[in-house]
Amino acid sequence: MEPERTFFEYLQSFSEAKSPIDFVLIYDNLGRFFDGALVTLQLTFLALLVGGLIAVPLAIARAYRKLFFSPVIRVYTYVFCGTPLLVQVYLFYFGLGQFKAVQESFLWDPILSSPWWCVVIAFTLNTAAYTTEFMRGAIETTPHGEVEAAKASGMSALTRMRLVILPNAFRRSLPAYSNEVIFTLHGSVIASTVTLQDLLGVGRWLNGRYYLAYEGFLTAMIFYMAIVLLITVALRLAEKRLLGHLRPRETSSSAAARVAA
Question: Which segments cross the bilayer (predicted)?
Fold first, then answer.
């Protein structure tokens, strides 16, 4: 009787005999891909968190046309939304180091000399610029009736902003922010160009080390697809919960017709 083979032996046999893809090599390096996925998620969500905190006051200043602040913020968002993220990362990582004043500053050794922090800063400023713009639009289009009702109830401007305008804007900008989360995740592949071992960086390492054509990229693609699926499901559930009151409700006549049918 043939002894029972392990999963690894089946995988090795399949890769050698029937598959153009070396699944054994992928299996042996899965730990590196999980480490790369962790780096990708850390970069993405740290940038989204800090960028979101930056974007809220900037969006308020833009929406209410604050003198001096609004033009400066508009220039900032134009620069970061109008230039490629790759160029922004290169400017922080390669560009700042060309200035002697930067190298001698207190920020150089712990932050600006590190590829990790340069990527985080570039990602944060980039996502903050995009978030500022769609948050500004959401604040400006807050229903006038809700604002007037808050005024009539005696709320101060700060209380109206905290209890009425911002919660309303957050809910209505959630679909746009969902896209921004995915775009930031996809943009994180740029980190591999400045030596960080994110998901794509691990895929490049695997292909380069073993002279492969696509095993590393294919594995990275599957990881990205799984992460995007989880994020999409979570954001859809959040949208369903926070925007449920905006969905059209069933009228009594349509309900009666459905019951009769």
Answer: 37-61, 73-94, 114-132, 212-238
pTM of this structure: 0.84
Longest CA–CA span in the chain (Å) reads: 86
Q: Are 45 and 232 in contact (CB under 8 A)?
A: no
pLDDT tens, residue by residue, 201-251: 999 999 988 888 888 999 999 999 999 999 999 998 988 887 765 565 555
Q: Which fold has domain 33-244?
A: MetI-like fold (1.10.3720)
